[in-house]
Amino acid sequence: MVSMENVPGGKEPGEGPPAPSVSSRGGGYFRSHLVPRTRNGWVAVLLFLGLFALVEPPFVHGVANRIEPWLLGFPFLYTYLLVIYVALIGVLIWALRRRL
Predict the structure, then answer these.
(1) How many Å is the Cα radius of gyration of the chain?
(2) What average pLDDT does the segment 77-81 reach?
C-alpha cells in the first residue's frame, strides 16, 4: 500500500476528482471562436459589418462621392467617411468594454 506521504495531495490513489481528459476535443462539440455566442456579440458584429458596408466602393461611389455640401469645413465625402469611421471605432470600443 502507498503511504499518504508519497501521494500528491495526501489522498489515496483513485480518490479525488478525475484526471483531465487527454482528448483534444474535450468531449464536447466544436464551436468556432469567430462566431459570437451572445446577443450583444451578434449586435456588435452586425452593426460593425453594416457600418463597414457604408464605406465600401459600391455605396461610397454611388451615394457619398460628392464635394457639395461642405460640412464641418470639409467636403461631404470626408465628413461622411469621418462619421462612419468614428462609429466603427465606437462599436469596437463598446465591444471591448463589454468583453465580447
Answers:
(1) 27
(2) 93
